[in-house]
Design a protein that fits this description.
Layout (H helix, E strand, L loop, with lengths): L1 H8 L14 H9 L3 H11 L3 H14 L8 H7 L2
């Protein structure tokens, strides 16, 4: 499993410091140089399709490393 999480850390995408919830919108905005408000609006619109929008956000929150390289899913799996 560590190989999988290390490959996630090698990606240039990080959950951003501009956080309202999990930092996913802030990370996407930072990566592409977009305004975080626009990314948040796009995410809110995608939540109208609950399985797609909310599901994708949760998966991204679990798998995208934070600024300090911590991955939430990896932390949870280490507890078991």
């Amino acid at each position: 499993m560590d190989k999988f999480f290390n490959s996630l850390r090698s990606m240039p995408l990080r959950r951003g410091p501009a956080r309202m919830a999990g930092g996913v919108a802030g990370g996407i905005a930072d990566k592409f140089g977009w305004d975080v408000t626009i990314v948040r609006i796009i995410m809110l619109v995608s939540f109208l399709l609950p399985v797609l929008g909310i599901g994708a956000y949760i998966v991204a929150w679990l798998l995208i490393p934070a600024q300090d390289d911590t991955i939430i899913l990896q932390k949870w799996l280490r507890k078991f």
